[in-house]
Specification:
rod-shaped, mainly alpha, DUF3021 domain-containing protein, 0% strand, 83% helix, DUF3021, transmembrane, 69 residues
């Protein structure tokens, strides 16, 4: 389910990139674009996931400390 969002973004961006001449209409170029897009997307996802995980842990600690009072 989480893979649908980056896939839909790539499908929106790829035709625009080809139309404006940013990428040639070759299979190798499209595969390279897909590879680079996935690497960048998942790197950004991991950073945001790590930040959210720390934030949730901090909120849970506050709630646990208030609950134990």
């Amino acid at each position: 389910m989480q893979y649908i969002y980056p896939c839909s973004n790539r499908l929106k961006f790829l035709p625009i990139a080809i139309l404006f001449g940013w990428y040639p209409l070759y299979i190798s170029a499209i595969l390279m674009f897909t590879f680079i897009f996935n690497i960048i997307y998942f790197f950004m996802w991991y950073i945001n996931y790590s930040k959210a995980k720390k934030m949730v842990a901090a909120i849970n600690n506050v709630l646990k400390s208030e609950h134990n009072k």
